[in-house]
Design goal:
The protein has about 425 residues and is of the alpha/beta class. Helices cover about 25% and strands about 25% of the residues. The strands form eight sheets. A five-stranded parallel sheet has the order 6-13-7-8-9. Strands 1-2-3 form a three-stranded antiparallel sheet. It has a three-stranded antiparallel sheet with strand order 10-11-12, with no helix packed on it. α1 crosses α5 (about 130-140). Bound molecules: flavin-adenine dinucleotide.
């Protein structure tokens, strides 16, 4: 969905870059939805194949504890099978929470439904101000839909609030409307359909004011509860927090019951992120099967801007190597990139601008150079802005990146042939269109 939005934005921008087309360009939700489902299907298939290759039995059933060291697995046809084991890992994740008001379960959808929704949702009210709420609002608006976000108190609770407000302003620029300090009290269906027509009655979170609005779809993103309620944890005495039902674990992911471990979203006070769940699972497997225990160092990092994931990925590697402000200051910038030009990096109260410079080594790789080292063999090729203070004979790559060449071209970051100097060219062009400085 993000990609669909980005492509739409690129289409809009493309005219400014000289692209001329006269056909009306419109988005087809059904095509996108099918593509998403196909992609998920292919991921599932490859995971299952990987499990088979490792001789791991995959059982597609609902699991629940019936006693210590024993679970019941019920498949889609209602067939029950019992399994026993010495140790258990709970990774049941979370499911979206409902409001508990009239009409919510009948007429509202959640982010879990959105990715497989067979029809375009139309004018959408997103209820909530979490990352899930703003993410969904963002890509729906990016597809050209009318989007309103109803916020009870603050945006992105628990996030750095200065950054949260910046995110709010940036999504408003997509045309998203905010209804601040309101909570829905009733959802009525006015018309059936795909989508139908819904009336939402909301009341002020601070006073007595009531408002009403008409929407095609109402998407609830008010939080997620851990899937720990109906899996028999009470039968074996696993401690579960009342709300949101997550499991407290030790620093080796062990619950209060020694044979039961938990990883992922279901765990208390852990970041709800896929890589966190994956890494915790890997480390737990290593520990349970006698592998070594890694100790990760983590430093806070915020990025607001396009390609934030790409930028963060690079910084994540540096942070794992003990990245400091001094190191950032000492690093030459890659240009033109979002990381250098537009990304504001905030560490506590420090405002940093990441500077990285690179050289393409082959069609598929480039290296990042530290500030203070100079460009060696390629310095003879002069570029505006590639200042002499950076030219010495002993440059060593800090880091080599291997990325598809097409990615560089697509981003307008770099192109050229193996051995070329630093510079940016359009695909197929021999002329440097951006000097690196
Ligand atoms: C809209 C949205 C966007 C997100 N975007 C990002 C993002 O951009 N980046 C990111 O890192 N994270 C993102 N996340 C968070 C990420 O999806 C979760 O952190 C991650 O999926 C947690 O993994 P998990 O294995 O703990 O749980 P899940 O991925 O939820 O997996 C739990 C699995 O357990 C199954 N299950 C539940 N109960 C049982 C049972 N009793 N028996 C058998 N199976 C059961 C479920 O069906 C499910 O397959 C997003 C989440 C949402 C909702």
């Amino acid at each position: 969905m993000h990609q669909a939005t980005l492509l739409g934005q690129a289409l809009t921008d493309s005219r400014k870059f000289g692209w001329e087309y006269h056909q009306q360009v419109k988005h087809n939700w059904e095509t996108m939805s099918k593509a998403i489902q196909n992609h998920i299907g292919s991921l599932n298939w490859s995971y299952q194949r990987a499990l088979r290759e490792k001789a791991v039995a995959y059982v597609n059933s609902y699991g629940e504890f019936v006693e210590h060291h024993k679970i019941k697995a019920t498949n889609g046809k209602g067939q029950e099978t019992y399994y026993t084991a010495a140790k258990f890992v709970i990774a049941t994740g979370e499911r979206p929470r409902y409001l508990g008001i009239q009409g919510d379960k009948e007429y509202c959808i959640t982010s879990d439904d959105l990715f497989s929704l067979p029809y375009c949702p139309g004018a959408t009210l997103v209820v909530g101000a979490s990352s899930v709420a703003l993410e969904c609002a963002g890509f729906l608006a990016g597809l050209g839909l009318e989007v309103t976000v109803m916020v009870r108190s603050q945006l992105l609770r628990g996030f750095d609030q200065e950054m949260a407000e910046k995110v709010g302003s940036s999504v408003q620029q997509l045309g998203i409307r905010f209804l601040r300090k309101f909570v829905p009290v009733e959802v009525q269906q006015l018309e059936k359909g795909s989508p139908g027509k819904l009336k939402v009655v909301a009341k002020s979170a601070e006073g007595t004011e009531m408002i009403e609005g008409l929407y095609d779809t109402v998407l609830l993103a008010i939080g997620r509860d851990s899937c720990t309620k109906k899996i028999g944890l009470e039968k074996i005495g696993v401690k579960v927090n009342e709300k949101p039902g997550n499991i407290p674990v030790s620093d080796v992911e062990q619950s209060n019951v020694p044979c039961v471990y938990a990883v992922g979203d279901v765990v208390e006070a852990k970041p709800e992120l896929t890589p966190v769940a994956v890494q915790a699972g890997k480390l737990l497997a290593q520990r349970l099967l006698g592998g070594c225990l890694e100790k990760d160092r983590v430093i806070g990092f915020h990025v607001l801007g396009p390609k934030a994931g790409e930028v963060t990925q690079g910084f994540a590697a540096s942070m794992k190597r003990g990245l400091t402000k001094q190191l950032l200051d000492d690093t030459i910038g890659i240009r033109p990139t979002r990381a250098q030009d537009e990304v504001d990096v905030t560490f506590g109260t420090c405002f940093l601008r990441a500077e990285l410079r690179y050289r393409q080594l082959s069609a598929n790789s480039c290296c990042l150079l530290p500030v203070g080292r100079r460009s060696p063999p390629w310095r003879s090729r002069s570029h505006r802005g590639w200042t002499s203070r950076r030219r010495t004979a002993e440059a060593k790559p800090l880091l080599s990146l291997s990325l598809p060449r097409s990615r560089f071209c697509e981003d307008g970051v770099l192109s050229g042939k193996p051995g070329d100097s630093v510079g940016t060219r359009r695909r197929g062009s021999r002329r440097a269109v951006h000097p690196p400085g």
